[in-house]
Predict the structure of Cytochrome C biogenesis protein CcmA.
Amino acid sequence: MDIARRCNLLIEDLSVARGERVVFGGVSLRLDSGEIAEVTGPNGVGKSTLLRAIAGFLPLRSGRMSWAESGTTDSATLAERLHYVGHLDALKSALTVRENLEIGLGILGRDRLTPLEALARMELAHVFDLPVGYLSAGQRRRVALARLLIADRPLWLLDEPLTALDQHARTLLKAIVADHLKSGGLMLAATHEPLGLPETIQVRLRAI
Ligand SMILES: Nc1ncnc2c1ncn2[C@@H]1O[C@H](COP(=O)(O)OP(=O)(O)OP(=O)(O)O)[C@@H](O)[C@H]1O
């Protein structure tokens, strides 16, 4: 990512409903290039719902959301600027890791690392040609996270990114997140466990 490109995500007074029920309301947040926020709160309070709404998978009930960039003439939408990694890994078990990552290329485009380079960054190059169905839960998670490194998208939305990762993989993830933020990226994570990165903005959701 071009360090000269500055971006920000502005969320104002957001509320989202699932079915007839309003899950949360009054959520506001401003996130600028280089910043990370963690969304916390008890089970069922709406952390995943908030990330999915920002990703454009769920409609807003009320409130506003905007994305701004400077230093680029490309007027992409927010959906084209984000990576979303849900708590389900969205990998196809019958396909190899290589094939799964190559499908991602078609959807996300590629302008950063190759699939093999991205996998090597997550220290999993040796499983490149194995079917995903052969992998452990933590290895699957690492493959899903490797996708972040293939297409250069400034906003990362990660739902419970630490799930199934051992201590070493957590350290790898923290390093790629720190690099992303240093190069002007933004990240919003829904998590029960803090990632432990400095100056993290806290968004605490409360039951309504
Ligand atoms: N597809 C759905 N249809 C209707 N309600 C849903 C749906 N998915 C989730 N919900 C409800 O929305 C609320 C928020 O769920 P969400 O998954 O966002 O919570 P969460 O804070 O991420 O929880 P957890 O910590 O358990 O992951 C819950 O009450 C849940 O039952």
